[in-house]
Amino acid sequence: MAPSTALVVMLLLSLTSAQVPHWGPCPDPSTKAAFNLKQFMGRWYEIAKLPAQFEKGKCIESNFTLKPDNSFHIVSSEILEGELRKIEGTGITEDMKNPAKLGISYSYVLPFSPYWILATDYVNWAQVYSCTDILRLFHVDFAWILSRTRTLPASSLEKAMEVFANNNIDISRMTTTKQQGCDKTL
């Protein structure tokens, strides 16, 4: 590896301290067939996730609102050290041929990050995956199990884990998000 490439790799690794890089390119998981963005809109509570440096609190939730141009506004929040923290972003459908492949950005200067809906019934649960290749040498990924309520039955949680496993997504580090004591919300 050239010195400049090694430096870039080290820099990118330092930016992903909470994430664990995996060798090789991102997996290519199946996404929700005939995905309906309008039905996906609304409030989703995070039930479980792969660790992410940008999510350290409890009571994590996101509210999606469709815009007239078919993009969407997203407001995400968490309670961290007793304080309600919010961040707003924009989402788009990245691939019209595969409308479950969304992109989200929380900054005007950063590109859209993948936000792929692997499975959902729209009214109870959803599994979301995001993966970014770094120089095609390794990838950093995120995965979330979402619910329309702050809890999800164990059977639904197991089904969600199977969706990730069937798509070769390593969820061995997945953690449960605390959804108790959530009096401060969006």
Description:
The protein is α+β, with helices and mostly antiparallel strands and 186 residues long. It has a single domain, classed as Lipocalin. Helices cover 16% and strands 40% of the residues. It is built from three helices and ten strands. It has an eight-stranded antiparallel β-barrel. Strand 7 (113-120) and strand 8 form a beta hairpin. The longest helix is centred in the first third of the chain and has 13 residues, at 3-15. The protein is globular, with a radius of gyration of 16 Å. Mean pLDDT is 86; it is low at 1-18.
Report the strand count: 10
CATH architecture: Beta Barrel
Distance between the termini: 47 Å
SSE-based structural type: alpha+beta
CATH topology term: Lipocalin
Number of domains: 1
Radius of gyration: 16 Å
Give the strand order, joined by hyphens, for the main sheet: 2-3-4-5-6-7-8-9
What is this structure, in a nutshell?
By secondary structure, this protein is an alpha+beta fold. The chain has one domain: Beta Barrel (Lipocalin). The chain contains three helices and ten strands, in the order αβαββββββββαβ.
